User: What shape does this take?
Amino acid sequence: MQQMFSLFLITILLNGSFAGLWQQTTTLDSAAPAAETSAPAIVLKEGTEIKLKFAQSLSTKSAVVGDRVEFVVADNVLVDNSIAIKAGTRALGKVTTGKESEKKRNDASALAVQLEYLKVGATRVKLRSAQTAAEKGKVDKAKVVAATALFGVSGLLIALSSKRLVIPEGTPVLGYVAEDVQIGSSDTI
Amino acid sequence: MAARFAKLLFLFSGIACGFVEGALGQASSPNPTASQPIPAHSSFVMAYRTPRHISYSSPDIFHGVADTVLQFLTENNVAIARDPERNTIETAELFSTDSMVRLARDAGASELLYVAVDRPITKWIKVTVQCYDLSGKQLWHEEASNTSAMTGKVGLQKTTDQLRHKLQSHLGQPCLVGPTASVASTPHP
Assistant: This one.
């Protein structure tokens, strides 16, 4: 009788976990078609230009390598006449050249910022600052000149000066989508 | 024969129990991806270090003051809204009120608590705490500083004690209210 009782217990335990696993699998299976049936997504192509602006000031006095830098999208980004990225969307970058440590009291001699990503809903859109040579022919010459003046290969080279340099909030910056990314329709607007 | 029948019965009952248990477990288990409910009142904390503090004090003091304020909030059950990307922002860069309010809103906060840490010529340290609503209107502010202490360490201790005492008087007011408590009316400056 005792043996039968222990067998009963083992059976309950084993089947309980199996049933849980089965339930989980069926839940995942049933979730997949729901995602497929959602409205068509917008694809942001690699190289799409995004007008950004600094959402904070930045100075050689305080910028430390690795510090996060806040940007906001200045203008709506349109894809096929629909808004893919709304103006005001937050973007983040980081200081790549600046003070090595926040303990240093002197100003950094150079300042560079690299754009990292922006978030559209739950999707992260990777950004880059520089424009590849292959694309230069496609865009407005004036824009290329402006971008070249502002951006270095690894980021945005701001200054190489002994004077303190301050980039005020609102300073415009051009960014580009680093790789093709699909934005769900629920992510837009 | 009876024993075999009993065994089979146990096995089937085990399977049935297991599935019921699994299904119930699935139904009752919280979805880890579901977003946490945002409390009715929560404060987004931003700490700013002035250029003079960079020049004449140490980053440890700045982060220490920011930690003191956060500790005060935690001790008094004030709901703190965290930025999904940066948690609590402690920076030496200037942000406009608009930018800070936008970050607070994105973090799901109902108010912004801005802590500025300065090192004026005549004082060991000066801490200013300002409370803003999401329209950018300043609701209240407090200052704590010390001039008389013999050493900077004592000056810091006296300032944080003074700050705690001053913040105590604002408990229950915007920026210093618990997650479910109602906001007491506050005299606007």
Observations:
- The first strand of chain A starts at residue 42 and ends at 44.
- Residues 7-37, 131-149 of chain A have pLDDT under 50 and may be disordered.
